[in-house]
Amino acid sequence: MTTLDEVRLSDVTSSEASLRQFLHGLPAVDHVGAEARAAGLATRSIKTTAKQFAIDLAISMIDLTTLEGQDTPGKVRAMCSKAQRPDPSDPTVPPVAAVCVYPDLVATARAALGSSTVKVASVATGFPSGRTSLQVKQADTREAVADGADEVDMVIDRGAFLAGHYGQVFEEIAAVKEACGDAHLKVILETGELSTYDNVRRASWLVMLAGADVIKTSTGKVAPAATLPVTLVMLEAVRDFRDTTGRQIGVKPAGGIRATKDAIRYLVLVNETAGEDWLAPEWFRFGASSLLNDLLMQRQKMITGRYAGPDYFTLD
Question: Residue 59 contacts by C-beta under 8 Å, 6 or more apart in sequence?
Fold first, then answer.
């Protein structure tokens, strides 16, 4: 459990000195221990009934995503249809949590989803680099929210973070959070560029202190993307943050999670690290596209006893 003896959390401000004192006072991550713990949890097996529940839970946690230069309104509308009814032949399959698109396609997604429970998420703030002015980030966010975005996925300026400009990163997140209004802010750390688990822990605490509603591993554009050990460190951070502040923050691993067995490993990791309170779409998401079809294939196999094949479901 993180101890905060060196500096009281209530004393932390957006100043470089205050943030540096706090963030560098956090306990170092046991690199070997984190990887061993994640590897050990990945070997856990679950019973058939639990697997059925886990598959439906994982489907309900997906942010179905398309973030390509070739995205079209037609592609987004098709994705929104699949998000609401992942398997048209089986109405018992739950809808996904959200669709995630570029800001200029938010209005298209909003119109396609209507009053559906599926949220509209938008990558704003200079995705995927995050290297634009604060004014552009705020304008990008306001426009996405005005067009109907329920959630904004912001990427931090990793260059500023790695240079130790914690105050700059803090102020940008706080300003974007204000621009979000009632929309939730999911902040992407791009952990593949942070190099160390200690940096992942510091970045997690920094963005939570600045007002993030969800901390997210990756854009999916940088390798490595989501990994179990990195997600473990982030889950420990949100657990300790709630214990300290009383505020619960969500977690979203994104990028490279394609198979049902991997999704279940993440759910076990959540349960064993942060606890059952995080086993809900409000608090844990998968940033994925190809994962959904594998979950649907495995789900149908459990019901019918045979695989339908990858071409049975629409491509994402």
Answer: 86, 93, 94, 96, 292, 295, 296, 299
261 counts as catalytic? no
Catalytic-residue membership of 252: yes
Provide the residue type at 30 as one letter. Answer: D
Q: What are the pLDDT digits (tens) for 108-161?
A: 999 999 999 999 999 998 899 988 999 999 999 999 999 999 999 999 999 999
* Whole-number Å distance between alpha carbons of 196 and 210: 21
By residue count, the chain amounts to 316
Q: Identify the pLDDT of residue 1.
A: 43
Q: What is the pTM of this model?
A: 0.93
Q: Which structure tokens are listed for 181?
A: 């209004």
Longest dimension (CA), the chain: 60
Can you tell me which residue has the tokens 């904004």?
152
Q: In angstroms, how far is CA 198 from the centroid of its own chain? A: 19
* 119 assigned to active site: no
Which domains, from first to last, does the chain contain? 9-312 (3.20.20.70)
Element (H, E) at 264: helix 260-273
When pLDDT is cut at 50, 70 and 90, the band that residue 314 belongs to is: low
Catalytic-labelled residue, pool 82, 119, 177, 252: 252
- Active-site pick, 216, 240, 262, 294: 216
What's phi and psi for 72, nearest 5 deg?
-130, 160
Ordered alpha helix ranges (H), 72-227: 73-84, 106-113, 134-146, 158-162, 166-180, 197-210
Collect all residues with Cβ–Cβ distance below 8 Å to 134 and sequence separation of at least 6. Answer: 171, 172, 175
